[in-house]
Amino acid sequence: MEKNVIEQVFGTDVFNDDVMRAKLPKDTYKSWKKTLESGEDLHIEIANVVAHAMKEWALDHGATHYTHWFQPMTGVTAEKHDSFLSPASESKPVLEFSGKELIKGEPDASSFPSGGLRATFEARGYTAWDCTSPAFLREDAAGVTLCIPTAFCSYTGEALDKKTPLLRSMEAISKQAVRIMKLFGYNDVKKISCSVGPEQEYFLIDRDKYLQRKDLIFTGRTLFGAPAPKGQELDDHYFGSIKERIASFMKDLNTELWKLGILSKTQHNEVAPAQHEMAPIFTTANISTDHNQLTMEIMRKVAKRHNLECLLHEKPFAGVNGSGKHNNWSIITDTGINLLDPGKKPHENTLFLLFLASIIKAVDKHADLLRLSASSPGNDHRLGANEAPPAIISIFLGEQLEDIIEQIIRGDVSSSIQGSKLDTGVHVLPVLKKDATDRNRTSPFAFTGNKFEFRSLGSSMSIAGANFILNTIVADSLQDFADELEKADDFNNAVKKLIKDTVTEHQRIIFNGDGYSNEWIEEAKRRGLPNIKSMVEAIPCLVSKKSINVFERQNVLTKVELESRAEINYEAYSKTINIEAKTMIDMAGKQYIPSIIKYLTSLAESINNIKSASPSADVSVQTDLLNNCSSLLASAKKALINLEKVTAEAALKPEGQERATFFKDVVFTAMSELRAPIDELEMSVDQNFWPVPTYGDLLFEV
Ligand code: ADP
Ligand code: MG
Fold first, then answer.
1. Are residues 220 and 317 in the same domain?
2. Mean pLDDT throughout 665-677?
3. Does residue 567 sit within a domain?
């Protein structure tokens, strides 16, 4: 029987464990595995042998080049290709790849954002192999390239990327969690890893129409556009049957992802028209991060093959839902225990309750950092806008755990609410067991059975940021716990007291109600929870004393690295809004206003013609239209002049916080003032004169 496509293609483009076992000499393979497990430095002799096997495998698959693949602070991945051709070769080509080339690269990296960490005269940057994430092959018009996942640092060792702090944070949480496991007698646990499953939302639109919209091309979102007569009000797209063209995109996407060993699992239509979602099966945080970056890249590439464009922006269209990314996170020991699995009787599961308490404490103490980790210019349109979680960070535990927390605080823990049977009232249906807890879609940080789901991330963001912050703050709570418990005389009592004290102190972060309601905003204020409304307002927390302390204590980022990241964030925000403003200026000046003038001229000519043909004819409709549209046109022109003025002013503001704040408060407002009259005109101007495809064309004609 022929193999199923998944069996045929899965992992074929990955230099994974199976390939290594087959290709490496037994001894090398063993030492290699030992290095991985112990987390020790890799010996150059082993690296040489691995590099040789990797090269042979890549050549067998047609590779001509290799690249260190890294994730600078731009949010997208970067690569510089080298062919395997050795400099020694003269007449006959010699193809080489050494251990040194595998483990270390040196891209001239002065043009990547460094937030002042590195001046151009000290341009050296190094890429270092992240040997815990497998190398893979990429095939495109450039041929086949061997891609080596790496971390990217400066000459003096400062992190210049998203990967380095993630790897550091994984070590930090592992170290502290192992201390806790020892206290509970689990001496066999040597390592703990964070598992992440990111659910990825995206839009697909027709590429020909996309190419007619400069806003989509330059900024990834529509900067103008009146709502279509139909939006998402009928809820008929969500989980609806998938159109043929989209289905064939999904089929191709899955095949490409499976080849790379990406565990693509679910696919469905999302709430907004033209919106969809894919989710992989969870895996270790750094691999999951690499896979998510690849997934986004491949989505874009495969879409083009179907003459579609994949939009990953958080808010491509006003008036319908934007796209997010749910970050499902758990911590699992190397012996296979999921520390977030409450078991049947969570109230008796002290180990689980202690880890839960550590998370409650971490999220309450560092809600501002988590908020920051979900901040991007695009996500500013979503958080708090009743389509994504509110900007206020809180934890949803569900009925069962909340009840246990209340018992703990009262001081008599004796029971766990159990899931009951679901009665559908129909006898032919099977009897279903209900979960002990319902879902809550409005919570930013929700417990969902055996993992937490951080729901605030934007669709285009790297998941590295959220996960390194999450790992770091939880590691810090665990360190406090381990310090205290290691010196306790009576462990059992000490741990119970610690759980009780912690959840009592941090209870305010738990909220099981409707996160979209106005009452919650008031309630959160009473509880003293931060409500940080925008990215620009979130950035300062990166360099607060509290944050510097936790990142330095966990060896994840230094003060200098944090300061550089704050700068990079301000700059990214300012540049994004600047591009949006300039695109609006361009479209309004060169497309909308000229088209509207053409339409008005034709109206005026029509009025004159009718009047001269029949002086008594009623031309009031045309005249009203002419007057209304002319006055909207005048407003548009005025708003355009203002936008040009404030965008020029923004460039003169000092870089950093001040400029970013000006873009948010002044330029962004001026953009809305230009959009309003143009969108209104779109509703009355003859569609034959309208210069770009409308929301209706973009969202419904796929
Ligand atoms: P839901 O529909 O409940 O959000 P799914 O079970 O479909 O949940 O999972 C959503 C994502 O969560 C998937 O990527 C899945 O692999 C991931 N996931 C499931 N269990 C875990 C876990 N223990 N740790 C991390 N991620 C997980
Ligand atoms: Mg989910």
1. yes
2. 98
3. no
Alpha helices in 220-308 (DSSP H): 244-259, 285-305
Residues 6+ apart with CB under 8 A from 270: 201, 237, 238, 276, 277, 321, 323
The closest residue, in CA terms, to atom 6 on ligand 1 is 281
Quote the ligand 2 centre to 598 CA distance (angstroms).
49
User: Which CATH number fits the domain that encloses residue 582?
Assistant: 1.20.120.1560
Q: For 371, how many CA atoms within 13 A lie in the half-sphere containing its CB?
A: 28
Kindly report the average pLDDT of the chain as a whole number.
93
In a domain, 428, yes or no: no
What's the CA-to-centroid distance between 350 and ligand 2, angstroms? Answer: 27
Task: Give the number of the ligand closest to the Cα of residue 279.
Answer: 1
- The boundaries of the domain holding residue 685 are 573-700
Q: Nearest bound ligand to CA 197?
A: 1
Task: Note the pTM of the prediction, 2 decimals.
Answer: 0.95
Same domain, 380 and 511: yes
Does residue 582 sit within a domain?
A: yes
Using CA atoms, how far apart are residues 449 and 52, in angstroms rounded to an integer? 45
Note the pLDDT tens digit of each residue in 545-582.
Answer: 999 999 999 999 999 999 999 999 999 999 999 999 99
Q: Which residues line ligand 1 (CB under 6 A)?
A: 195-197, 199, 266, 279-282, 328-330, 338, 448, 450-451
pLDDT in tens, 583-602: 999 999 999 999 999 999 99
Q: What is the number of the ligand 1 atom nearest to the C-alpha of 282?
A: 16
Q: Name the DSSP class of 78.
A: E
Report CA(396)–ligand 1 centroid distance (Å). 16
Asked whether residue 240 is assigned to any structural domain, the reply reads: yes
**pLDDT tens track for 229-269:** 888 888 888 888 889 999 999 999 999 999 999 999 999 99
Cα 5 to middle of ligand 1, angstroms: 24
